[in-house]
Specification:
By secondary structure, the chain is of the alpha/beta class. Helices cover 38% and strands 17% of the residues. Strand 2, helix 2 and strand 3 form a beta-alpha-beta unit. Helix 1 crosses helix 7 and helix 3 crosses helix 4.
C-alpha cells in the first residue's frame, strides 16, 4: 500500500478544523497544523495544542498573511485543507498563490464545508459568502490545482442541537418555529464525522476534482419529520408555528449579523430545499456514505438522544 499523504490543515484550531486535524492524526496521515506562534500563549487553546502534541500532530508556525511562511509550510506536505472561518474566505487566494509557488501539492480542499455554492438558491447576506466560495472554485479550476470540495450540508452542533431555533441553547420543549411548510428535506452531520469523511477523501482518486457530498440516508429529514422525531423522544407534542416565506425574507432584512446570515442559510435549505433538490451526478460529485460504508456515522436519531 502506498504511503499516506502528508496533510496540512490551515484553520486547524477552529470549530471544524480541530475535527479535521484529529481525524488526520487518527487515520495515520502525517498531519500538520498551521498556527500563529502568538497563539501558543493563548490559554484558551493550550488544551487543544496539548492534545495535538499527544496525537502526533506537528505544529508549523505560519500565517495566512505571511506568504513565505505559507510556502515553507506547504512544501512539507502533499495535501492542503483549508477550514478558515467566514471572515477569511476571500483571503484563500493567498493559499492558492502559495500552492502555485510551492509546486508540490497533490490536492487542495478549500474552506467549503456547507451547502453546494454552485447549486444553492440563497439570498443575501449568505449569498455574499457563497459568491466568494464560488469565485474561489473557478480560480482553483482555472489554475489547474487538483481539488476536492466538501459539501457537508448542516453542522449538527449548530443546526440540530437547537432544532434551528436561533438564540437558544437546546431543542425546544413547548413550541417550535418552522420556516415555510416544513417539507423540504435537509441534511445534518456531526462535526467529527465530517472530519472523518474529509480525511478519507484525501488519497481517494474517486474524489479527485469532484464535490464530496456528505448526505448519509439516516441524516436526511424534513423539518416536520425532525420535530416529530423529537416529540417522540420527549413524549410531548410541540406547538408548531409555521412562518411563510414572505415573512422569513422580511425577517432576514431586519435582522442584524450573525442572525441574518443564519436565517438566509436556513431559508435556502428549509424553504428552497437547496441541500436535497438535485441528484448527485457522477460528472461532478460523489456521496461520502456510499464511498465509505465502513464509517459508522452518528445518525440524527442518535445525536438527539443527548438532549432528552
Amino acid at each position: 500500500m502506498s504511503e499516506k499523504s502528508k496533510i496540512l490543515v490551515i484553520g486547524g484550531t477552529g470549530k471544524l478544523g480541530k475535527f479535521i486535524v484529529s481525524a488526520g492524526a487518527r487515520s495515520g496521515h502525517p498531519t500538520f497544523a498551521l498556527v500563529r506562534e502568538s497563539s501558543l500563549s493563548n490559554p484558551a487553546k493550550s488544551e487543544l495544542f496539548e492534545s495535538y502534541k499527544c496525537s502526533g500532530v506537528t505544529l508549523l508556525f505560519g500565517d495566512l498573511y505571511d506568504h513565505e511562511s505559507l510556502v515553507k509550510a506547504i512544501k512539507q506536505v502533499d495535501v492542503v485543507i483549508s477550514s478558515v472561518g467566514h471572515s477569511l474566505l476571500r483571503d484563500q487566494d493567498r493559499i492558492i498563490a502559495a500552492i502555485k509557488e510551492a509546486g508540490n501539492v497533490k490536492r487542495f480542499f478549500p474552506s467549503e464545508f456547507g451547502n453546494d455554492v454552485d447549486r444553492t438558491d440563497v439570498v443575501f447576506p449568505a449569498k455574499a459568502a457563497y459568491e466568494i466560495k464560488a469565485k474561489l472554485r473557478r480560480t482553483i479550476e482555472s489554475e489547474g490545482i487538483p481539488y476536492t470540495y466538501v459539501c457537508n450540508n448542516f453542522f449538527a452542533g449548530y443546526f440540530l442541537s437547537t432544532l434551528s431555533q436561533f438564540g437558544t441553547t437546546a431543542p425546544p420543549r413547548d413550541k417550535v418555529i418552522i420556516m415555510g411548510d416544513g417539507n423540504p428535506k435537509a441534511v445534518f452531520n456531526k462535526e467529527d464525522d465530517i472530519g472523518t469523511y474529509t480525511i478519507k477523501a484525501v488519497d481517494d482518486p474517486r474524489t479527485l476534482n469532484k464535490i464530496l457530498y456528505v448526505r448519509p440516508p439516516k441524516n436526511i429529514y424534513s423539518f416536520n419529520d425532525l420535530v416529530s422525531l423529537w416529540e417522540k423522544k420527549i413524549g410531548k407534542t410541540l406547538e408548531r408555528i409555521y412562518v411563510p416565506e414572505e415573512e422569513v425574507l422580511k425577517n432576514i432584512k431586519e435582522a442584524s449579523p450573525p442572525l441574518n446570515v443564519e436565517l438566509s442559510i436556513s431559508h435556502s435549505v428549509y424553504i428552497k430545499g437547496s441541500q436535497t433538490n438535485f441528484e448527485i451526478e457522477p460528472s461532478f460529485g460523489v456521496e461520502a456514505s456510499e464511498l465509505y460504508p465502513d464509517v459508522k456515522y452518528t445518525t440524527v436519531d442518535e445525536y438527539l438522544d443527548q438532549f432528552v
